[in-house]
């Protein structure tokens, strides 16, 4: 990496729009593939793993065991975020993003080769180990992808370009559901459970050549170049980004985590928990459930960058807050509608998850840029990773908690809605804390306490 040697020239360079577009496109492709890999595990856990790896005489226990391994990946995400954040603050955003993609591709492909527990009794352990690797990888890629997009964008369009990294969430879910729908339609139920479910995992190998293409053609961000230039002139002030951000910005980390938890929980409950519920207890077919999840995620794809663009015009916190308020209002009605579904009446399920998708898009389109702007460039990778991935720990237990709250009785589904509404209220409280402290990031030579005051955006 070439950086200017004179500290007077170490300010971030201006970025032309074509470079911003290229960076945001690369971030969208990278996160789409990462989230595809991460989410197909949740889908497989909802449809297959309860019988292939965790079969018991009790359907609830089998589902809990299966979804517990989904949560394992979310627990590993902050560890990947901490390691990658430190590396990203020291060595750059791009190499961390590429490394995370390679780790995810290898781990996901290997999951497709894990034998059923009837064949190898250690199979569940192997599955959990590879899920941990998935968690480390997705934890590592998120902040790097968001910063590649936002730090390569002009200031007045950071919300729009930054939303493309978040666009990987619905795109990854769409890709995963399309592949599983094709696999389900093209095979018998017995063949699907026996071996066809493995095909979506093997497809992940396509990520390797894309990772090398990003490594070859994508430039490092201007803000990191400026930070690296200052560090080269003043090596004695280089410190661990993780320790610095925890020491000086703990409020920003916790506020970011609390504000984002509801979105992560609702997404997991929508794409995995609700699918398991309607296919297990309401006799809704896999194809019908996955089709409506696919439609919901497809709807989110144009909404995410649209709301990111709105955040450039009206402020991140306003758009983000509207998303939290929408989830607060929709949580209980959503889970009153879903139990009214059935094999001949899919519209309540469809309405419930489409409404959730619209509400989630308000936050998904703004959260990456909002979190990144809470931290100075010197520790931005570490801070953004921690804030987002702590929320991921709680969110990963969404499907598990859904099964536990319902406990085999469809009349208990409203409890899940109350949980979502409560988390949305926490999100609004944390957003108010962010507004009152008015956290921001400013390019500068050092981190000096909590970030200074700036505009309410």
Automatic annotation (TrEMBL):
Pfam families: MFS_1 (PF07690), Sugar_tr (PF00083). Its main location: membrane. Keywords: Cell membrane, Membrane, Transmembrane, Transmembrane helix, Transport. GO terms for cellular component: plasma membrane. One of its GO terms (molecular function) is transmembrane transporter activity. It is a multi-pass membrane protein. It is found in: Cell membrane. The chain crosses the membrane at residues 38-55, 67-88, 95-114, 160-183, 195-215, 252-277, 289-311, 318-340, 346-365, 386-407, 413-435. Residues 23-439 form the Major facilitator superfamily (MFS) profile domain. This is MFS transporter.
């Amino acid at each position: 990496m070439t950086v200017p040697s004179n500290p007077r020239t170490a300010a971030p360079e201006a970025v032309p729009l074509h470079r911003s577009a290229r960076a945001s496109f690369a971030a969208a492709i990278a996160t789409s593939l990462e989230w595809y890999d991460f989410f197909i595990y949740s889908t497989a856990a909802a449809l297959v793993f309860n019988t292939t790896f965790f079969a018991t005489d009790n359907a609830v226990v089998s589902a809990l065991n299966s979804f517990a391994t989904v949560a394992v990946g979310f627990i590993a995400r902050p560890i990947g975020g901490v390691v990658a954040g430190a590396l990203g603050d020291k060595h750059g955003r791009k190499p961390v993003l590429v490394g995370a993609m390679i780790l995810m591709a290898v781990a996901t492909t290997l999951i497709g080769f894990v034998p059923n527990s009837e064949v190898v009794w250690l199979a569940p352990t192997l599955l959990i180990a590879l899920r941990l690797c998935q968690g480390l990888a997705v934890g590592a890629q998120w902040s790097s992808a968001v910063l590649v997009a936002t730090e390569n964008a002009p200031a007045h369009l950071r919300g729009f370009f930054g939303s493309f990294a978040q666009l990987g969430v619905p795109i990854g879910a769409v890709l995963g559901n399309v592949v599983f729908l094709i696999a389900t339609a093209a095979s018998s139920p017995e063949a699907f459970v026996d071996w066809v479910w493995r095909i979506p995992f093997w497809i992940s190998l396509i990520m390797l050549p894309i990772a090398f293409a990003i490594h070859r053609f994508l430039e490092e961000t201007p803000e990191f170049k400026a930070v690296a230039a200052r560090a080269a002139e003043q090596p004695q002030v280089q410190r661990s980004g993780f320790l610095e951000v925890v020491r000086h910005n703990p409020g920003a980390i916790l506020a970011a985590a609390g504000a984002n938890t509801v979105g992560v929980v609702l997404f997991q409950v929508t794409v995995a928990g609700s699918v398991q519920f309607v296919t297990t207890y309401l006799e809704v077919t896999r194809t019908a459930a996955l089709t409506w999840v696919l439609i919901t995620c497809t709807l989110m794809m144009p909404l995410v960058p649209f709301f990111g663009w709105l955040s450039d015009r009206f402020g991140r916190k306003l758009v983000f807050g509207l998303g939290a308020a929408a989830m607060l209002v929709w949580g209980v009605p959503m889970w009153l509608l879903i139990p009214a579904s059935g094999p001949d009446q899919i519209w309540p399920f469809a309405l419930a998850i489409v409404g959730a998708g619209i509400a989630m898009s308000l936050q998904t389109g703004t959260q990456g840029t909002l979190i990144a702007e809470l931290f100075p460039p010197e520790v931005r990778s570490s801070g953004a990773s921690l804030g987002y991935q702590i929320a991921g720990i709680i969110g990963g237990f969404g499907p598990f908690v859904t099964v536990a709250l319902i406990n085999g009785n469809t009349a208990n589904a409203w409890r899940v809605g109350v949980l979502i509404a409560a988390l949305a209220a926490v999100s609004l409280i944390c957003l108010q804390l962010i507004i009152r402290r008015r956290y921001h990031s400013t390019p500068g030579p050092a981190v000096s306490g909590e970030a200074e005051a700036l505009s309410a955006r």
